[in-house]
Design goal:
- The complex is a heterodimer of chains A (290) and B (189).
- By secondary structure, chain A is mainly alpha-helical.
- Helix content of chain A is 61%, strand content 1%.
- Chain A contains 15 helices and two strands.
- Chain A has a two-stranded parallel ribbon with strand order 1-2.
- In chain A, helix 6 runs parallel beside helix 8 and helix 7 crosses helix 8.
- The longest helix of chain A is centred in the last third of the chain and has 18 residues.
- The radius of gyration of chain A is 50 Å and the shape is elongated.
- Chain B is mostly helical.
- Helix content of chain B is 76%, strand content 0%.
- Chain B contains eight helices and no strands.
- The longest helix of chain B is centred in the last third of the chain and has 30 residues.
- The chains are: A mainly alpha (290), B mainly alpha (189).
C-alpha cells in the first residue's frame, strides 16, 4: 500500500471499518511510514498542528463567520451557573466557554464575589446608642449616658459634617498661628515709620526734609465740602507762615495712623492738601469720600 | 427564643422582648436605610422613625415568616418618603457617606479585615452607581434576600419582570465592579 492509497482509506481506517485484508495492509504501511502515522494522529485528534493562540484565533474567526460571539448566550446563563442552578450539560458548556473567554471569566469572578459579599451588607452596624434612643422613644426607657469618649466622637462627627467646617478650621488655624508666631502684619507704629520714610523720599521739590510736618486731619466728616476746603486752606496758610513742611498722604489711611504719627512727633496731611499747597489752579476739591 | 416567640411576646407588650427585637433588627433596618439614603445620620434618624412606627402597630405584628418582608417594606416606604422630601430640599453634604460608614469586616487579622473592608467599599460604590429598578432589586433580592414574589408585591411590578431583571442587575453590578477596579488600577499606575 502506498501513501496515496492510505490517505483515501484514512477515514475508514480511523473508524475501523476496513476489511481485514485491507486493514492488515494499512497497518503494515503505517509501521514503515512516519508521515502517514502523523496524518492518522491528526485525524484522530491526538495531535494538533496549531499553537494555542492560533487555535483561539481560528475558533474566534469561525464563530464570527457562523453563529457570532457566544458571550451573549453565556452571560444569559452565567448567573445560574454561579448559583449552581444549571443542569450538568449547560454548566459544562458555560464552563468550556469560560476557559476561552477572559471577559466572561472576569464577570463570573465578580458575580461569585458579589454572591458572597452582598448578603453581608444586609446589616450595617449603627452607632452604639441607636437602640437606646429607639427604646427611649417607644417604651420610654431612659437612655444610658454615653461615655465621654463616645460623646466627644459624636460631637466631632457632627462638627465635621457642617458645611462651614473647612472655613472655621482655617480661621481657627490662622488664629493659632497668630498667637504662637505673632502678628505677621506690622504694627501701626512700625508702619508709620516705614511709611514716613517712603514719604520723605518722595517729598515735593523745594521742601525741607527736616522741618516738622503739620498734622492736618479733619475729624468731622459731617462738614460739607466747601467748609472742609476752607478749613484746609486756612491750615495751609498757617503752615506756610510757620515754615512747616506739608506732605501729602493717602486718603485711605485710617485716622489712627495719623494719630500714631502725631504721637511720634510727626505729622502728615490729607492728599488733597498737596494740590492746594502747590497752588495748582486746576486742582479740584476732593470727592465726598476724600 | 425564636422569632415567632419573640413576636408573640412583643404583641403582648413585653418590653424585654421589644428590646431584644430592636437590637436584633436595628442593623438590618439601619443598613437598608443607609443603602437608600447614603447618609449615616439620615439613616439613623430614619431607623428610629421606623421602629417607632412598628411600635405603634406592635399588636399587629405579622408572623415570623412574613416579618422580614414586612419590616423591609416599612423601611423602604419610609426611605422613599424621605428621599421625596429631600428632593425638594436637597441636603448639604460635605463628606462622602462611604467614608463614614461602618461596614463590619469579618477577618482574622487587621490585614484581612482591611482587605475585606476595601472589597466591601468597592462593592458599595458599584452598588451606588446602579439606578432605578436594578438597584432596588439588588437591595431587596441579593442583600435582604427576599423572594421574587415578595419583591414583586413590594415594587408593584410583574413577577416575570423581577426575575428577568434580577440577573441583568447582577451582571450590571458585576460590570460596574470591573470598571471600578480597572479605574483604581489605572490611577495607581
Amino acid at each position: 500500500m502506498d501513501c496515496r492509497t492510505f490517505e483515501e482509506i484514512l477515514a475508514e481506517y480511523a473508524g475501523r471499518s476496513l476489511r481485514p485484508a485491507v486493514q492488515a495492509q494499512a497497518d503494515q504501511h503505517l509501521m514503515k511510514c512516519e508521515p502517514c502515522r502523523r496524518l492518522l494522529e491528526c485525524a484522530q485528534g491526538r495531535q494538533n498542528l496549531l499553537s494555542e493562540r492560533e487555535q483561539e484565533e481560528m475558533a474566534d474567526t469561525i464563530l464570527l463567520r457562523t453563529s457570532g460571539s457566544p458571550c451573549h448566550r453565556a452571560q444569559a446563563l452565567i448567573c445560574d451557573f454561579v448559583d449552581n442552578a444549571l443542569d450538568r450539560d449547560s454548566a459544562d458548556l458555560v464552563s468550556k466557554h469560560l476557559d476561552h473567554c477572559a471577559p466572561c471569566r472576569s464577570l463570573t469572578s465578580n458575580l461569585r464575589e458579589l454572591r458572597e459579599i452582598l448578603p453581608q451588607l444586609a446589616e450595617v452596624r449603627p452607632d452604639e446608642r441607636l437602640a437606646d434612643t429607639i427604646l427611649a422613644a417607644t417604651i420610654g426607657r431612659k437612655p444610658r449616658k454615653a461615655p465621654l469618649t463616645l460623646r466627644l466622637r459624636e460631637l466631632w462627627a457632627r462638627l465635621v459634617r457642617r458645611p462651614r467646617f473647612s472655613f472655621e478650621a482655617a480661621y481657627v488655624g490662622t488664629l493659632v498661628v497668630a498667637l504662637f508666631v505673632g502678628n505677621p502684619f506690622p504694627t501701626v507704629r512700625s508702619l508709620s515709620v516705614r511709611t514716613l520714610d517712603a514719604i520723605s523720599q518722595s517729598l515735593p521739590r523745594g521742601l525741607d526734609k527736616n522741618s516738622p510736618v503739620l498734622l492736618l486731619h479733619l475729624k468731622s466728616f459731617a462738614l460739607n465740602l466747601s467748609s472742609r476746603e476752607q478749613i484746609v486752606r486756612e491750615w495751609l496758610n498757617q503752615a506756610r507762615e510757620r515754615g512747616e513742611t506739608v506732605i501729602a498722604a493717602s486718603v485711605n489711611y485710617q485716622y489712627r495712623w495719623f494719630k500714631a504719627l502725631h504721637q511720634k512727633g510727626l505729622h502728615s496731611v490729607h492728599g488733597f492738601l498737596k494740590r492746594l499747597w502747590h497752588g495748582d489752579p486746576k486742582s479740584k476739591p476732593p470727592t465726598a469720600g476724600g | 427564643m425564636n422569632l415567632e416567640g419573640l413576636l408573640e411576646c412583643c404583641r403582648r407588650g413585653d418590653e424585654l422582648a421589644w428590646e431584644s427585637m430592636v437590637r436584633q433588627f436595628q442593623g438590618r433596618v439601619y443598613g437598608l436605610a443607609y443603602h437608600y439614603l447614603g447618609n449615616s445620620e439620615d439613616a439613623r434618624d430614619l431607623a428610629q422613625e421606623v421602629f417607632v412606627r412598628i411600635y405603634q402597630k406592635i399588636t399587629q405584628l405579622p408572623d415570623a415568616g412574613g416579618f422580614l418582608p414586612w419590616i423591609v417594606r416599612i423601611t423602604r416606604n419610609a426611605c422613599i418618603d424621605q428621599m421625596r422630601r429631600k428632593k425638594v430640599r436637597p441636603p448639604v453634604r460635605d463628606i462622602e457617606a462611604e467614608d463614614m460608614v461602618d461596614l463590619p469586616a469579618v477577618g482574622k487579622n487587621p490585614e484581612e479585615q482591611y482587605s475585606e473592608n476595601s472589597r466591601r467599599r468597592l462593592v458599595y460604590r458599584a452598588l451606588r452607581e446602579l439606578t432605578g429598578l436594578n438597584r432596588e432589586i439588588i437591595l431587596l433580592k441579593e442583600i435582604q434576600e427576599l423572594s421574587f414574589e415578595e419583591i414583586a408585591s413590594m415594587l408593584k411590578v410583574p413577577l416575570g419582570t423581577v426575575k428577568s431583571r434580577s440577573n441583568r442587575a447582577r451582571i450590571e453590578l458585576a460590570r460596574k465592579l470591573t470598571e471600578l477596579r480597572t479605574g483604581l488600577a489605572n490611577n495607581s499606575v
